[in-house]
């Protein structure tokens, strides 16, 4: 696919959207990739990083390697994600601490609309797709109610966290950030981002590289050979994850980070009890943002 500089700038903006979503525990960058119409190309491009393409790289055939892995596309997306993560990490964690209802309301509308959008791609509903949808929803719901674990902070475990979390980050509806919450390492990794702890970030990134290149092959195969069932599972994931992004919560358990700041650890959903009008408005904004992004990506595809 031949792209112009404007196209790559737009891809970078889409990467910014993915990065912003990945910072929030409950929203997936894969959801944004699906909305803006780059999901299949993203998975196929990641899958193309394999033994054959790496052989081209290590034998000095860098031009062929770049073409084989769709390098211009990947670097544009990665640049956008990096810009977003490193610029928004402080803002997002601050908003989640000080204005949680507003943040969750916006993303609730976004994920709700995304569930509808991804579900539209299912061409045939039968007992198999319905079962896949139910299983996806049940698994996602279970993940959202699981209790965060107390885990070690050694480099090997950080590597494993990167490998597991990145798989969730490219799945619409399953948040890699929330997987980090369950592994007890969300605020630990966010702190590493904010303070540029190179050792922790490099180990996390190494695990992420291994996880994403392995998992992308499975996803690519599933989308090509069992597309309806795969989309049904992904739609179920997104529906089940709505439990996590419900705006009104009550904190049952907190923890204190290494800077002495008290943060929520275990929360349960409650009925709307504050900022109701503002939250509803932000839900609508999130919903229609997805709608307009879908229209834009559909128009670009034509």
Count of helical segments? Answer: 14
Largest sheet: 2 strands, antiparallel
Radius of gyration: 19 Å
Helix content: over 70%
Strand order of the largest sheet: 1-2
Shape: globular
How much beta, percentage-wise? 5-15%
The number of E-state strands comes to 2
Instruction: Output mean pLDDT.
Output: 82
Structural class: mainly alpha
Uncertain runs are none
What is the string of helix and strand elements?
HHHHHHHHHHHHHEEH
Number of separate domains: 1
N-to-C CA distance: 14 Å
Give the SSE map.
Elements: H1 5-23, H2 29-35, H3 39-47, H4 51-58, H5 62-68, H6 71-98, H7 100-119, H8 127-145, H9 155-169, H10 176-182, H11 186-195, H12 198-225, H13 227-241, E1 249-256, E2 262-269, H14 276-301
Antiparallel strand pairs: 1-2
Helix pairs in contact: 1-2, 1-6, 2-7, 3-12, 4-5, 6-7, 7-13, 7-14, 8-13, 9-10, 9-12, 12-13
Can you give me a brief rundown of this structure?
The protein is mainly alpha-helical. The protein has helices spanning 5-23, 29-35, 39-47, 51-58, 62-68, 71-98, 100-119, 127-145, 155-169, 176-182, 186-195, 198-225, 227-241, 276-301; strands at 249-256, 262-269.
């Amino acid at each position: 696919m031949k792209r112009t500089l404007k196209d790559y700038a737009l891809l970078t903006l889409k990467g910014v959207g993915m990065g912003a979503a990945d910072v929030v525990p409950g929203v997936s960058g894969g959801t944004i990739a699906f909305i803006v119409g780059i999901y299949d190309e993203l998975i196929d491009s990641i899958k193309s990083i394999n033994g054959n393409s790496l052989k081209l790289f290590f034998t000095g055939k860098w031009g062929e390697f770049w073409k084989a892995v769709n390098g211009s596309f990947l670097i544009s997306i990665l640049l956008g994600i990096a810009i977003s993560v490193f610029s928004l990490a402080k803002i997002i964690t601050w908003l989640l601490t000080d204005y949680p209802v507003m943040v969750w309301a916006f993303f609730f509308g976004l994920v709700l609309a995304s569930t509808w959008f991804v579900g539209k791609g299912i061409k045939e509903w039968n007992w198999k797709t319905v079962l896949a949808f139910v299983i996806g929803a049940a698994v996602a719901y279970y993940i959202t109610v699981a209790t965060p674990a107390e885990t070690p902070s050694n480099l090997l475990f950080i590597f494993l966290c990167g490998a597991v979390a990145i798989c969730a980050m490219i799945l619409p509806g399953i948040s890699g950030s929330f997987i980090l919450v369950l592994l007890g390492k969300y605020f630990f990794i966010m702190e590493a981002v904010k303070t540029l702890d190179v050792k922790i970030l490099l180990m996390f990134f190494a695990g992420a590289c291994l996880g994403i290149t392995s998992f992308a092959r499975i996803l690519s195969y599933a989308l090509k050979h069992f597309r309806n069932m795969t989309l049904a599972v992904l739609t179920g994931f997104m529906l089940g994850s709505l439990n996590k992004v419900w705006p009104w919560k009550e904190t049952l358990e907190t923890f204190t980070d290494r800077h002495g700041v008290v943060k929520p650890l275990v929360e349960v959903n409650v009925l709307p009890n504050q900022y109701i009008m503002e939250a509803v408005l932000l839900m609508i904004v999130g919903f229609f943002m997805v709608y307009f992004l879908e229209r834009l990506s559909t128009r670009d595809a034509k």
